[in-house]
Write a structure and sequence with these properties.
Blueprint: H1 12-61, E1 91-97, E2 103-109, E3 122-124, E4 135-140, E5 161-166, E6 169-181, E7 203-211, E8 220-233, H2 250-254
């Protein structure tokens, strides 16, 4: 009986598969590196660029600087002056948040991403009122990338001051409510937040930003509501809340 000899496999098929796997591996590694660079660009470099633009904007705005040696002796709770709406993209004031280590950010008209928000500016919703007016003065800001001016929004607590300077006036609002909502809940910026169609009687402020922090940050919106506590002319000095002091309550002031 003849002997049957088995020929050893040539290895070509296995070698070809190995080559394909190797190429795919290199592609995946390259994509991983590119993705990593993109994340660095998004989370770090955009902040660097936006912070640089913001600093220049604040310098050009020449906004008043809080001075502990020049704290206002009296504050006002009557009807405040209200400035006319500025042109789209115009920077018209600042927002200062003592809870965020006295962070200062420019306020500009409009919520255009490239022209306002990506410059580390708080964007004023044009359909809402100006600071100090009856109704809802609503602002939007980034929470991730491009300066991330509202990054620490969840650290705010009820009664925290949110200080707006617009023109020659300081407006001091106090936080009343915070909540995460769906992006479709546009009633957050209604004249009376959460009550569309209701006529406003109070002077309110709303902050809006993305939520939560991370890759799914567009899933919801985080909303902060506040109510005007007092105002004063810039010429009268620094608001007490900007230097760690507290303005007298309305009843004490009246007495």
């Amino acid at each position: 009986m003849p002997t049957v000899r088995h020929r050893a496999p040539s290895g070509r098929r296995g070698g070809g598969a190995s080559a394909v796997v190797g190429v795919l591996g290199e592609i995946l590694i390259t994509l991983g590196v590119l993705l990593g660079l993109y994340v660095v660009w998004q989370l770090w470099w955009t902040d660097v660029q936006a912070d640089r633009v913001q600093a220049q904007t604040l310098q050009e705005l020449d906004a008043p600087t809080p001075d502990a040696a020049d704290v206002a002796v009296q504050v006002r709770r009557d009807d405040p002056p209200v400035m006319e709406p500025p042109a789209a993209g115009e920077v018209f004031g600042t927002l200062q948040v003592p809870r965020w280590d006295d962070a200062v950010m420019p306020i500009a008209e409009g919520t255009d991403k490239r022209e306002v928000l990506d410059k580390a500016e708080a964007g004023h919703y044009p359909e809402t009122v100006m600071p100090g007016d009856v109704g809802n003065f609503a602002l939007a800001g980034h929470r991730m990338t491009y300066g991330a001016i509202f990054h620490r929004v969840e650290e705010l607590e009820p009664d925290d001051p949110l200080v707006v300077q617009a023109g020659d006036v300081w407006y001091v609002y106090r936080v009343t409510d915070m909540r995460a909502v769906q992006p479709s809940q546009v009633e957050a910026v209604a004249p009376v937040p959460w009550e569309p169609g209701v006529e406003p009687t109070e002077r309110l402020l709303t902050l809006t930003t993305c939520h939560p922090i991370g890759l799914n940050s567009l899933q919801q919106r985080f909303i902060v509501n506040a109510r005007l506590d007092y105002w004063l002319p810039v010429a009268d000095g620094t608001p007490p809340d900007l230097v760690g002091q507290t303005a007298p309550p309305a009843d004490e002031e009246a007495s």
